[in-house]
Amino acid sequence: MSCCLIEFCRVQELKTVREFLFSGQQTSTLGTDFSQTEKELSWEDADWGSWEKDETKEDVKPEEESEKQSAPWLYDCVVSLSPCSDLLVIARKHKAVFLSAKWRTDEVGRDEMTLAVSWSGTLSTEDMERVTSAICIPLASQKRSSTGRPDWTCIVVGFSTGYVRFYTESGVLLLAQLLNEDSVLRLKCRTYEIPRHPGVTEQHEELSILYPTSLVTIDGFSLFQSLRACRNQVARAAAAGNDMVQPPPLAYKKWGLQDMNAIVDHSSVGIMTLCVFDQMRNASVLGGFHAAVKGSPPAMCQYITVGGGPFTGFYYAIEGSSQPLLSHVALAVASKLTSALFSAASGWLGWKHKHKHEEDPAQKQKPKVEPATPLAVRFGLPDSRRHGESICLSPCNTLAGVTDDFGRVTLLDVGRGIAIRMWKGYRDAQLGWVQVCEGRGEREKATSPSLPRRHAQFLVIYAPRRGILEVWGTQQGPRVGAFTVGKHCRLLYTGYRLMGVNSVTSQGWQLHTQQLCLLDPATGALRTVTVPFHLALSDKKSERAKDMHLLKRFNALLRSRGMEPDILESEAQSVLLEIKHPAIKKQALESLLSNKKAPVSCLINITRALLDSLKKQDPEAVDEILLQLCSSQLRLLQMYTDIMALHSAKPPPRGQDTDPTLTQQTACSGIDDDLARVGPVLQRYTELLSRPSVSFAQDPEGQFPVQSFLSQLEAEGGSLRVVRGQNTDWTQLGSFLFWGCLCGQSPPQKVCDMLQDTGISPQDLLALLLNVWLDREKEVLQNPQAVWHLHSLIAALSAMTGAVEDSWDLQCVSPWWQQVRTACVQSESAGAALLVALVSHRAAKNSITSLAEKKFQSDWEAVSLELEQWAVCVRQLEDLLALHTLLCLPGPRGTPGGALARCSVKALLESGTGGVADSVAKWVFRQDLKPALLKGILETRGAAEPRENPSEGEKNPEGASFQKAGELLVPVCQRFPVSLSPDILFAHCCWEYVVQWNKDPEEGRYLSWAVEHLKLIANPHIQLGISIMMWNTFIVNRFSAAAFLMEKVGKAPKDRLCRRDVGMGDGAMTSFLGSCTQLLQTLVEADAGIEEVPPPELCVEEVWMGAEGPASIAELALEQRSVHYPLVQHNCLLASLLHAAMAFGIRVKPLSLFDSKGRTAFFRDLTSIQLLPSGDMDPSFVSLRQEFLLKVLTAWVKTQVEGADPPPLCPGPPDNSWASLCLDLAPLLQVNPDVLRRHLVCQLYSHGLDLRAEEVALEVEDKDVLGSQLLVLTGQRLSYSLLHTQTRPGMELLARLPPTLCTWLKAMDPSELSCPSVSLSLTSRMVSRVIEILPENHAQYTLALHLLEAVDALGPEA
Q1: Cα–Cα distance for residue pair 427/60, rounded to 1 Å
Q2: pLDDT band at 658; cut points 50, 70, 90
Q3: In angstroms, rounded to a whole number, what is the distance separating the alpha carbons of residues 468 and 1256?
């Protein structure tokens, strides 16, 4: 109930704003403090006299004036804030930054508003022009459905050249006007306010612009309509692409302020009417005894200026004495002058956007400035040595605050024109006003409720020299608030609200605007001041004011440090009992109970004393709410102390208070059997869960704060209710109540009896117990005895009144046990949830058995729906525990990580039938299991070693981790035989890997393994559906981008182009194209096999039949339509060509190898029917295709000779994979395969691979052509041996050769051979092979015989 300084917004990126505005300057001194030589006074010990006798400048030292002060950077800027606090403008020189409001959610989940940069740039259009003033005017919406929020905000900026320009929030210039050639000093606005009394004159909206010698006022209604029209015209011009926007007319009044030496600030009070006495007095003073007086007083506009000579001037302009002036543009539009005149004037008005070098000389001339109407000062406050610095008008236009260079703040009575109060010691002060409305219920006892509510005004003074913000009551009120703030803040006071509002449109609006804000440049915080109305009451004996003083004293006592608890208790109790008002007393009690320093005994004693004092008072005068609060809080405090005493007592020795009854022994034996069954899995889960990890340390012995205890429990009548809060709060409260029992330090039965006496419902206690048990899973699993203590607690809670209904039907579900099952199935702590379910299952079974014995008196075992529910729940939790044990296994080092996937039974049921397989697939990806290894695990059911040999870099620890993964995966597969069938698991793994590849396309291994998983799917229906989904979702777009890129470049593109168009590097793109080929081939094979195998029937395990959620991957795969086989083969052909071109770097335009039909059919939906090429292809296309395949074979043979590994087509390819691929593609491309085989044979012989060439030569059909080609190769080899080696035996042999053969050898070019140096034995064998191939009647048969003789003759001599 006192003044508060509340932060409501925060400005972001202030450092960026400062760097932009001060770019190119030294900013090291921008944030320094004021250099102050005078003694700094704090607001506690300063002299706050209203008037001082000596008010001259003699107390200011000359050295202080000469000392240079480095002001903070925000003081060098023009700052303006919208009244709605949604737009902030910061400008300096020719630059400006606009910051708009944005909402975000903080860490707690609350929405908070921030101001972020929305526009920044240069506003000046002329040389040496700078911003001198700015103002943000929100414009009201004209829609009927508006609730008072502004439609948009106009930024009005004044410049040193005299221009006034209007901008939108995005920096778009709407209107520019030159009203005077001097610099603009101040811009101020007045908007419509609903009159509070019938006799108050209704004020019109107005924008006032102050120049050094003149004042311009613009009517608000005209300005509102003009700005709306300009904004609409700008929007239409931007949509049409036209820069010419015609402005609407703008009317204004211009007054020449006379009889003042200097003017620095002003305030427009508005229209006022003098009373008859004041009218006659003024007439007598000005006109004498015979002055004439009009029948009705004239309406006048009052203006107040501050400056020098006089210190304050009062001007009065009679309405109608000056006609509104229209700008030249308005006159031009009104009289419809020629377009030439409009073009000449449009440049300086800002309507024509041209660059400076494009402007005509005539357009650079400034427009004619309208003369001002002289206006003499009526009177003023003369003070020759005092100069005013600023004036701030109050919201009700009756008072004004003025600052001067003497460090004084003067309060003016606007109506009488006199100074009524003055404060000293406020150098460079900044002023603002806060108007507070009286509450609805504060005057209902004293006056009639029909009277208008009172309003109080408070003057806010910010003293930057001392860094304090003060709130003063007016007119002669005391200081009601003071806050210590920074020394570089800016107090932003608007003094207006929305423009465009009138008495009709404002009905029903609930617009909330900030009256003033304090901007702290150090933190960027925007804070506002809230003042209670009662602080304006002048009655010093008011009980409420006294109570507020006592409340402040009480809070100061609670904040004091080092005070003894006894002294604190006695003083706080005396102050609290002295407070009279119930609301303030309640506030003090709440402050006491929320104080973290006060001990519990102090809280109990003070609360008991307050309750006793209330009971001694008259029952009718006691506030019932306060009485109930005291009794309920005292009850909670007593409960807190009792629980603390019970937990701090020594635990009972073993054997006492722990003797189990026969029923408990039976239950314990059943629990033993259950624990023995789930023990191995639970032990392994505990080991994996307790591995080292990063966590925040918590003090286990730390006490639960009593403040948190009180905030989470509240009294309702005779019972207590747990307040629903965050999960962490429930854990703390549950730990406080039950953790001692779970650890064996407190007797469970006594704790439960005491909690039952407090009135807390058993359901709330059960929820707290389950919450702490499930939340502290690690600690629970490490304590084997905690299960028995949990059984005791659940049994004790179940025996409470209201827990299990006595009239419970065995064929119905008990709400008590259903609450336990709900908590278990919703928890992600699988181990702790299973233990709770086992214990509760046994407890429920014993309860049902005892109930059945009483009811039926039979030895038959009772069968109920409750036990069936428990059997299903326990089985689900056992399955979940096995799954969690698998998911907790950490991945090998260096493998892709990720957060630990935890889920609950409810999450698995809501994830659909594929939830389990999806979780295991994510685990497979995290473990980096190879597809073949996963297949081996599923086949061998946990074999020690995988079938395939480990790679060279694989070590024993990695193999051990894979073995452990197999040992954990097999039990999960046994528990989920249907959900984790091989086909389902491979399908989900395939999808997981392709999703991860899509996130990181550089990892081509992910896509390759996804295709491998796809190949392992046995059912062709699922395999076909997954292939189609992969192709349509992830592959086809990148595949088409790669094809178009290679078609555009005409060769294998570089890494930069691949990243730009396809989103991956050149190496990853090669692997991607290979995977595309494998995917399409798999799709073709699956499509061919769907007719032989019926579609599978998908189902889940019996206990998981209630799964509801999205369809699984397998279900979606079965819903896919069949594909068009020729279209798939057509795309597969293109993928093979792209892969080959990218792998060997061959220059080709792949799409140019097909005609228009073939190019059109690419990248279409595989299920659609497309028009494909048919018949014989154009020979030109066949020639290009043959040339491409020949290049591929040549490149592949080079890799065989150089010893480099060729680009693989698929995992583990044979050596002749690319050659086989080219021969397989030849028929599809209508290329003769025999040509490719002959080329391959020649290339192999040319590279010296004679043995492999002989194998391929056996398949050649046209032997004659092959023999001729090989004969040329033989001649090239022999020419190299005889002519290029130049050996003596060779020369002698060359001389003996026939002339025809010698001439033929000299014509051979050995440089065409890739490997000319070959042994003579291989050459001789090659010639023999040629002789075998060529028929005897062949034209070159004789030449071949001569070659054989030459080779045989050269062999022995060599």
Answers
A1: 11
A2: very low
A3: 97
* CB environment 835-866: b (16+ within 10 A), e (fewer): bbbbbbbbbbbbbbbebbeeeeeeeeebebeb
Question: Which DSSP letter does residue 1059 get?
Answer: H
Measured CA to CA, the distance from residue 1355 to residue 1347 in angstroms comes to 12
From edge to edge, which strands make up the β-sheet containing 150-159?
A: 131-140, 150-159, 163-167, 173-178
The per-residue pLDDT for range 46-104, each reduced to its tens digit, is: 344 333 333 333 343 333 333 333 358 898 999 999 999 999 999 999 999 999 999 88
Contacts with 356 (C-beta within 8 Å, 6 or more apart), sequence order: none
Whether 827 has a pLDDT exceeding 80, the answer reads: yes
What is the rounded end-to-end Cα distance, in angstroms, of the chain? 117
The backbone torsions φ and ψ at residue 919, rounded to the nearest 5 degrees and listed phi first, read -65, -40
Mean pLDDT value of segment 576-604: 89
Tokens of 930: 């190879």
Distance (Å, whole) CA 830 – CA 689: 11
**361 contacts: CB under 8 Å, gap ≥ 6:** none
> Which letter, b or e, does each residue of 1321-1334 get, where b requires 16 or more Cβ atoms within 10 Å of its Cβ?
eebbebbebbbebb
Summarize pLDDT for 1120-1129 with one digit per residue, the tens.
Answer: 999 999 999 9
**Residue 391 three-state SS:** strand
Q: What is the mean pLDDT of residues 784-789?
A: 89
- Reported as a single tens digit per residue, the pLDDT across 533-547 is 878 776 554 677 778
What is the per-residue DSSP string for 939-970?
Answer: HHTS-SS-SSPPPTT--HHHHHHHHHHHHHHH
Kindly report the number of other CB atoms within 10 A of residue 559's CB atom. Answer: 11
**1150: cis peptide before it, omega within 30°?**
no
Identify the CA nearest to 979 among candidates 1115, 825, 872: 1115
Residue 824 has, within 13 A of its CA and on its CB side, a CA count of 27
pLDDT score, position 1355: 60
**Can you give the C-alpha Rg of the chain in angstroms?**
47
Other residues' Cβ atoms within 10 Å of the Cβ of residue 420: 14
Structure tokens at 849: 């058995």
Q: How far apart are CA 1270 and CA 1234, in angstroms?
A: 15
**Region at 209 (left for phi over 0; alpha for psi -120 to 50; beta for the rest):** beta
41 CB burial (10 A radius; 0-12, 13-18, 19+) = middle
Helix or strand holding residue 450 (H, E): none
What is the CA angle 1284-1285-1286, rounded to 5?
90
The DSSP code for 13 is: -
Half-sphere exposure of 1026 (CA within 13 A, CB side): 33
Judge whether residue 153 has pLDDT over 50: yes
CB contact set of 662 (below 8 Å; sequence gap of 6+): none
Q: Assign 3-state DSSP to the chain and report helix, strand, coil percentages, each to 5.
A: 45, 15, 40
pLDDT given for residue 539 in this prediction: 56
For 521, the 3-state DSSP assignment is coil
Report whether 1259 contacts 1237 (CB < 8 A): yes
Which of 98, 163, 97 has the alpha carbon at shortest distance from 125? 163
223 φ/ψ angles, rounded to the nearest 5 degrees: -65, -40
Q: What is the pLDDT of residues 965-982, one digit of tens each?
A: 888 899 899 899 999 999
Give the residue carrying structure tokens 């296309």. 1181
Higher pLDDT residue, 1334 or 811?
A: 1334
Average pLDDT (1023-1035) is 95
Sheet holding 418-423, edge to edge: 388-393, 399-404, 409-413, 418-423
